Amino acid sequence: MIEIIRTSRYPNITRPKISVGIGDCKIASNPHVLVTYSLGSCVAIVLYEHHVKTAALIHALLPEPKSSNDNPYKYVRSAIPRAVKELEKKGIQKNMLIASIVGGASILKSTVSMSIGKRNVETAKSVLKTYGIKLVVEDTGGSHSRSVYFDVATGRLFVIVPKFKLFGG
Amino acid sequence: MKCSLDSTASNEKYKHIALYKLLGEKITEALRTLTGADIVVQISGTRTIDIAKVIEKYSRDEPIVAIASSIYGGDINGQILLLLNISVARDLVNMLAREIELKPSDEDARDILREFGNIVIGNISSILSKMYRCRVEYDIPEVVVDLDTAVVDSIVLPIASEHDVIELHEMSISSTSELLKLRIILFGVSI
Fold this sequence. Notes:
The structure holds two protein chains of two kinds.
Chain A: E1 3-7, E2 17-19, E3 24-29, E4 33-39, E5 43-49, E6 54-60, H1 76-89, E7 98-103, H2 113-130, E8 134-140, E9 146-151, E10 156-160
Parallel strand pairs in A: 1-10, 2-4, 7-8
Antiparallel strand pairs in A: 3-6, 4-9, 5-6, 5-7, 9-10
Chain B: H1 12-35, E1 39-50, H2 51-58, E2 63-73, E3 76-84, H3 86-99, H4 106-132, E4 137-138, E5 142-147, H5 148-160, E6 165-175, E7 181-189
Antiparallel strand pairs in B: 1-6, 2-3, 2-4, 2-5, 3-7, 6-7
């Protein structure tokens, strides 16, 4: 299963980390930790096969692609099918996957980013449903950035919400 | 209502130069009055840029203070972003708080920065109104302290959902005492 741990500090995990950039996806097995930083209205989607301890972590920017030539991992709609395909190449069956979604915040309320974050989350849920992949946990919305550590060995998903203050405690 | 550019700046080639010169002068004046510091405005430029490059340029995964607002009126529809690193924001708040003999809390600091943004963005809006001969309005600025990548993608991604490139106007402001350093970025949609 996937267990979400919300924290304001980065976890102290010594196992090797694999960093996932913006508009990117990485697949890793035990003992690796998949990491992605600074999700604003972007979403991170974890696809996890907990029996064989293999996972994909996607960091997608926007809900829908504008053209078929674009990087598929930039868009939620195309990123999930591509990641599922890559997992299948590694022998992972689609019906054994479980998922988690993190992100989709609206950092600046005055912009229309609120709708982008929300649409990113809605699109992810819709695509997961189409593929029959169960969404087991999510940490979405709100107005703060998030970073994600996914420990493939344990299924623990650390969601780091940093707290910044200008003055005072 | 359609806006038309004032005839004194109607040559497309010089449009942005004129705009920047005016913006620089007005913002310098406002900041000098507010802070009492000797302000220097450096105009970094204006250009169309790929969305991904904007995110790359302004994203270092570092905490930052952002003062953001939308501007709109006629054909003008853009986002203004004032970026300050946290220590600069603290210095600025201290400079401004001294004027009203206030020892600021975190909430006071955000209010002071919001008011500062209101003055700067108000100036920008007023200049654009005169240049484009139409009423250009703006939303009350928001102040957020968060990671730069998340702040920038909040502004850029909505534009990216409809356009591949955006118009980016950038200027940086510093004082000779090195106490004040901030960047002003205007995001506009390229047609």
